[in-house]
Amino acid sequence: MPIRTPGRLAATVLTAALALSGCGSGSSTSDPNSLEVAANATDRTAMDAVVAAFEQANPGKQVTVTYADTDQLQSTLRTQSSSGTGPDVFTVWPGNGNPGALQVLQPAGYLADLSDRPFAGAIPAASREVTQVEGRTYLVPANYSGIGVLYTQPALTAIGGQEPRTWDELIALCGKARANGKVLLSLGNQTPWVTQLVTYALAATTVYADDPGFAGKMAAGQVRFADSGWRVALEKYQELDRAGCFSDQPLGTSYENSLKDVAQGKAVGVVQVASSLAQIRTEAPGAELRMFALPAGNDPAKVRMPGAISAAYGVNAKSGNPDLALKFADFLGSEQGQNLYNEQGGTLPAIPNASFRADPALGVLDQHLRAGTTVPFMDQLWPNPKVQQEHFSQVQKLFSGSATVPQALEALDKAYATR
Amino acid sequence: MATKLGSRRRGGPPTAPWWFLAPALAFFVFVVVVPSVQGAGYAFTDWDGITPAPDFAGLDNFRTLLDDETARLALVNTLLAAAGITVVQNVIGLLLALGVHARIRSRTVLRVFFFAPAVITPVVTAYLWKYLYAPEGAINALFAALGLGSWQQDWLGDPDLALWSVVAVVIWQFAGYSMVIFLAGLQSIPQEVHEAAALDGAGALGRFWHVTRPMLAPAMTINLMLSVIGGLKLFDQVWVMTQGGPGGATDTLSTVIYRQAFQFNDFAYSIALALVLTVLVAVISAVQYRGLRRREDFS
C-alpha cells in the first residue's frame, strides 16, 4: 500500500533529523605533547608568562591557552565539562558563590584530586577553606589579591592629606578632598560587581574584627545578615555617600570611568581589588600608586582587609593527558610559577615565598597577610550565587533610594536561604 | 501519483513536491524543533546545568515564577519597553519615510543617514551610548554647553529614567529600519490616486489620512510586528548598558532568563521563564497579526 505524502514527508524528515543528531560529540585530545588551558581574560598577561616559561622548561611540549571573559568562561566550561570535552587545565573560582566555583564543579566529579602534589602542603592555612573540599585539595591557587583604597600619591598630597587610619580621619579626608575640588573616592556602581567592594572593605572590620568565625556561624544558621555587623557596614556605606566621599552619580558611573577619574586626578582614589592597579597604570603610566585598608572604626588595631585567592586552576579529572596537566599544575604552584604569574598582575603569590619582590603599592596587603588580619572575600563562602547578585542589586537600590538598609539585609538573608 | 511542481489543488495556491521541502525541513527539525522540545522538557525538572539526570519537579518552577518579584518587575519592564519602542519607533519611522519620500534633493543621502544605525550591531551602539549617557558624557556636556544645565540627568543611574534611556537607544537605532519599510509602502502607492484625491479637493492632511494611511496598512503590519517582537525580546542593549540595574530597574524577561541560567545555575527555572516569554511573544504576535490583517482587509 502506498504511503500518503504527508506520512512519507514526516518519515523522511524524522530520519534525516535523527541521522543529523547522530553526529556525536568529540572528546579532548590525548596527544602527550599538547595541553589545553582555559583561563580568564583578565589573567592573560600572567598566564602567558607562565606558559612561555613552562614550554621553555619542557622542550617539545605545547600549551594552548583559550581566554574568555568571566560569564563566557563559566558557561562554556560547564557545557564542556558535562559533555567530557573540557580543557586539561582551567580556571576554577575558589570556594563557592558562582557557577564556576570549586564547590559547584567538584561534587560533579570534574576536578582531579591534587592533594598529593608538591604545592598542596604549602597552601597557607587561611586559603585552604576555599581550595579544599572535605579536606582534599582540588585547586592550585595562582594569585592573592585584596580590596582597599587604591590612590595616587600626588592627588593625596594635593589635597594636603595623608592615609586615614580611623573612620573619623576618613570622613575628614572626604571633606578635605571636596574643599580642593576633588572627590576622595570614585565609585563605579553602574557596574554590578563594583557595588560589592565597599561593603566588603567595611564588613571585613565591622563583621570579622570581633567575630572571625562569622561565616561558619552563618552557614550553621546561628547568625544572619540582618542583626550583624553587615548592618553597620551598609549604614557606613551610606554615611560615606552622605559625607560626599564618593563621585556625584555613582549609579551612572562605570568601572572603567571610575578608574579613569583616578588616572585623571579627578578623584584621589577608588575602592578596588589590587589587580586594578595594573589598569590604572595603563591609563596613567608612571603614576605613583599606593593602597590603604578602608578603616571602618576608630581603633586602628581592629582594621581588617579583604584578601583572598583571586585566580586558581583545576585539572580536568577526565583529561586526555593527565601527566602533562599535573606537571603544568605543579609548575603553576612552584616558586617560579607563582612569581612569574604575579610579577605583572599587581598581585601577590597565593603560595608565599621569600624571593618574590612585591609591587610597593601592595605593601599594605602584604602586611595584613603576614599579620593574619585579612578576611576572605565574603562571596567565596556564601552557599549560592544569588546572595552576591542580590547584594549588587540591593546596593544599587540603596543608592537610588528605593530600598532601606533593613530591607536590603532582609533580601540578603532570603537569598542566602534559597537552594 | 506524483505531485507536480506548480500544480494547483482545487484552485488553491501551488504546492511544492514533498521531497523538495524535506532537506530544509529536516535541518529545521534538527536545529530548532528537537532541541527546543527537549529543552522545554527541562522546565519541569530541577536541572542545574550540570547534573546528567535531573529529577522531575512538575510545575514547581512555574509556581516559583508566580512569587518571583524580580520576574514580575521584569515582565512589567518588558511590556513597557515593547510598547514604547513600538509606538515611538513607528511614529518616527513613518515621519522619516514621509520626509525622505518628498522630492527633495538630499533625499538619497538622508535615507542612508537615517538607515545607517540599523546596520551596526546593537552591542556596539549600546557601548557607544553607555559612554554618551555617562554623568560626564557627551549628552550632559552638550546640555551644559547650551546653557541647559538643569536638563542634565543621570541617564542610566536614575531608576525612573534608565529603562527609557535604553528604549531611546533602540528607537534611535531602528527607526531608520521602520522608515525603509514604510518608504517601500509609500513608493507602491500610485501617484494617480493622490492626484485624483487632490482634484477632489483633498488637502495634504486629508490625502495622508484617506489615501496614504490605508494603503500603508501592509507596511504598518510588518513594522508593528517586528517592533513588538523585538521589544519583547530586548536583551543586548540592556545587558551592555545596565545589566538590568540599577536595582532591577531595567531588567527584562530576557536578562532575568540569562541571569537565572548562567549566573544562578538555575537552568530549569530559566527555561520555565523562557517558555513563558515564548508563549507571551506568540500570543501577542498572533492577536496583533489578526487585528492588523483585519484592518488591512478593511482598508
TrEMBL record, chain A:
Q: Where is the signal peptide?
A: none
Q: Name one Pfam family in it.
A: SBP_bac_1
Q: Which residues form a coiled coil?
A: none
The record's section on PROSITE patterns has:
PROKAR_LIPOPROTEIN
Q: What is this protein called?
A: Raffinose/stachyose/melibiose transport system substrate-binding protein
Automatic annotation (TrEMBL), chain B:
Q: State the membrane topology.
A: Multi-pass membrane protein
Which PROSITE patterns would you find in this protein's record? ABC_TM1
Question: Boundaries of each ABC transmembrane type-1 domain copy?
Answer: 75-288
Keyword Repressor: yes or no?
A: no
Name the principal localization, coarsely classed: membrane
Looking up InterPro entries in the UniProt record yields: ABC_transporter_permease (IPR051393), MetI-like (IPR000515), MetI-like_sf (IPR035906)
- The answer, when asked if Transport is one of the entry's keywords, is yes
Residue spans crossing the bilayer: 74-97, 109-129, 161-184, 267-287
- Enumerate the Pfam families for this protein: BPD_transp_1
Give the UniProt keywords, A-Z: Cell membrane, Membrane, Transmembrane, Transmembrane helix, Transport
Task: Tell me the compartments it is located in.
Answer: Cell membrane
Family of the protein in this entry:
Belongs to the binding-protein-dependent transport system permease family.
* Name recorded for this polypeptide: Raffinose/stachyose/melibiose transport system permease protein
Q: From which organism does this entry originate?
A: Amycolatopsis magusensis
